[in-house]
Specification:
single chain; about 450 residues; alpha+beta; seven-stranded mixed sheet; three-stranded antiparallel sheet; elongated
């Protein structure tokens, strides 16, 4: 019974750690944003540079995933079980603090794949802590899938695999998009509240500056164009049915007639959200939460895409939460001529994990997403073709089941074959030992 209990607990903890590490690894930027939220809740926001939080994101996912695999295969049983117990001894009190104070709504344990409340997360960690305690108490009761002589293969292969996944998803985009802005999602439908449901109440405030003084304004008392836009914040006033997409808005900016020494100033000219989402046909959306941090190594491709969209009559907007000065500097640096719009920073970071990133909408439905490292190239022969006749104007064919199958073929299948080969080899050695023992008798 003890052996059965230990191995049940071992499989439970291993599966949770593998899933938790994997969903973090496929969305390193999302995990980084969550780490930043934790730091801000602890009044440490701004003290830790972005490259350190991103490094912590990648390492955290890799450690969780690898420890889960090591526990599953019973590799270094004493060390692995104690490390997992140590992690849970740290994380469980932390999640209790989160549940009591609620500074961050979602712990991010499973990324956007499975959102748990802070109390649910604490309960999960209590169960895992108990299971990890059982495993750490009797680690040698775990049966092995591979022998000690082949454990190094699993160790190295697991580490290389999960780090490669994180690197791929950082350079391109997450392999699996669990957010409401995934390819195939209709943004307008995602904002719809079913009949009979009470909508939640939100309040958006705008931070504006004039003569060196910053003030917050509600939408109803938005001041004149002499004020410069700095930032916007949205908070929930009352609960209700919250649709998957509830904070998506596009405020078009126009150049102000008044010029400043710092550059061109902009003023909001109206909400064009419905106009963009109800447009019949294609629409390009260039997404950049903050232009001052945006990668500018693909400027030529972005400008070429804008020219292509103008020639074929496709709307092209840049959605950003940047200040007017940052927009002006971006235009001076890149020669950008496309229109700019204001959208909430958190929303933009949720839409696409790239700065900048590019979305292609068709009738309000997201049919393509590109990282700035993988922007589409339209050559001279294609320049005269409409998007309907081009591959980039169609929904990609790679489905979620096909992606899962590829991952299983690349990771699970090799390890399964290794385990089978190892067990056969050990069985052969056992038969030989048994035969030699019988012969000596």
């Amino acid at each position: 019974m003890k052996k059965v209990l230990v191995n049940i607990c071992r499989l439970l903890v291993a599966v949770v750690f593998i899933l938790s590490g994997f969903v973090k690894a496929v969305d390193p930027l999302g995990t980084q944003y969550k780490i930043t939220d934790y730091l801000e809740a602890m009044s440490l926001g701004g003290l830790v540079p972005d490259f350190l939080t991103l490094t912590a994101s990648v390492l955290l996912s890799a450690v969780e995933f690898c420890l889960g695999v090591f526990l599953l295969f019973a590799i270094q049983r004493r060390i692995t079980s104690r490390l997992i117990l140590l992690m849970l001894l740290i994380m469980t009190p932390l999640t209790l603090w989160l549940a009591l104070t609620d500074p961050v709504k979602d712990c991010g344990c499973f990324g956007d794949a499975l959102v748990l409340t802070n109390w649910q997360t604490f309960g999960k960690n209590v169960v895992l802590l108990a299971a990890a305690g059982v495993v750490a108490r009797w680690p040698l009761e775990m049966f092995r899938f591979v022998s000690k002589s082949t454990q190094w293969i699993v160790i190295n292969y697991s580490a290389v695999f999960i780090l490669a996944i994180s690197g791929w998803c950082l350079y391109y985009l997450p392999l699996f998009d669990f957010r409401p802005y995934h390819i195939g999602a209709n943004i307008q439908e995602g904002m719809t509240i079913p009949e009979g449901e009470e909508p939640p109440q939100f309040e958006t405030t705008f931070i504006l500056e004039k003569d060196g003084e910053q003030k917050e304004f509600a939408l109803d008392d938005y001041p004149d164009s002499t004020w410069t836009f700095i930032d916007s914040k949205t908070r929930q006033l009352s609960k209700g049915y919250t649709p998957p997409i509830h904070d998506f808005s596009i405020m078009l900016l126009e150049e102000s007639e008044e010029k400043e020494e710092a550059g061109t100033t902009y003023e909001e000219s109206g909400d064009i959200t419905q106009e963009v989402l109800s447009h019949e046909g294609y629409t390009f959306l260039l997404i950049s939460p903050h232009l001052r941090h945006a990668d500018d190594s693909r400027l030529d491709l972005i400008n070429e895409l804008y020219e292509y969209s103008c020639e074929h009559g496709y709307p092209f907007y840049c959605l950003t939460a940047s200040t007017a000065q940052e927009i002006s500097q971006w235009c001076d640096r890149t020669g950008a001529e496309y229109p700019f719009c204001v959208t909430d920073e958190t929303t933009l970071k949720t839409v696409i994990r790239s700065n900048p990133g590019l979305l292609l909408l068709k009738n309000g439905t997201i049919i393509r997403k590109w990282s700035h490292n993988d922007l589409p190239v339209i050559n001279e022969q294609q320049a005269s073709l409409p998007l309907e006749k081009m591959e980039i104007g169609k929904m990609p064919q790679d489905s979620v089941p096909s992606k899962i199958l590829k991952l299983l073929l690349w990771f699970a299948l090799p390890l399964a074959l290794l385990s089978i080969a190892d067990r056969l080899w050990m069985w052969t050695k056992w038969l030989k030992r048994k035969k030699r023992k019988k012969d000596t008798e």
